[in-house]
Description:
The complex is a heterodimer of chains A (117) and B (110).
Chain A: E1 3-7, E2 10-12, E3 18-25, E4 33-39, E5 45-51, E6 58-60, E7 68-73, E8 78-83, E9 92-99, E10 104-107, E11 111-115
Parallel strand pairs in A: 2-11
Antiparallel strand pairs in A: 1-3, 3-8, 4-5, 4-9, 5-6, 7-8, 9-10, 9-11
Chain B: E1 9-12, E2 18-23, E3 35-39, E4 46-49, E5 63-68, E6 71-76, E7 85-93, E8 98-101, E9 105-109
Parallel strand pairs in B: 1-9
Antiparallel strand pairs in B: 2-6, 3-4, 3-7, 5-6, 7-8, 7-9
Amino acid sequence: xxxxxxxxxxxxxxxxxxxxxxxxxxxxxxxxxxxxxxxxxxxxxxxxxxxxxxxxxxxxxxxxxxxxxxxxxxxxxxxxxxxxxxxxxxxxxxxxxxxxxxxxxxxxxxxxxxxxx
Amino acid sequence: xxxxxxxxxxxxxxxxxxxxxxxxxxxxxxxxxxxxxxxxxxxxxxxxxxxxxxxxxxxxxxxxxxxxxxxxxxxxxxxxxxxxxxxxxxxxxxxxxxxxxxxxxxxxxx
Lengths: 117, 110
């Protein structure tokens, strides 16, 4: 069965960087578009970024453009989110999700990122 | 700031029906498929409806979706206490080249 497991979250100071990973299993990873979605504490869902099957296309929410980079390693069945210049407002649970391409049929359990001094 | 607007909350008694609206524009709902997600407290979201009105396997037919113009609607019939959750619509915006979720609707079973 499809399994997505995020890791890499934690507490980080404002202005620092963090890289999230999402390990995928149970499906042909290279055949699917992958997304990152976040949810600030007590708030709604916010779409963050998407990457095409082969990494050829990437799109970002305006709130993270220029600071976050989505990437994937199809040989390792792993999705990444490099987050630079982190701000307090980036504090959230980050989910990876499998896209088809724009409906998200499978989600990971999420990893919490807390940006605080 | 989301480009998709939902009512903050809806409620009904067990066994009744609720509908949740999702209002957008021609660049998102008007020209792309809409999906709906259920998020139970403390859990990851789950896909309920895709391609406007299709249900993934395992989703009961009490849940239905529709789209008309720049709006979409999720319907839940035979409301159960287990349906208490937050519900979000989602779609792609072709002009902004970005994905969006609706503002979210909390369903309460009275």
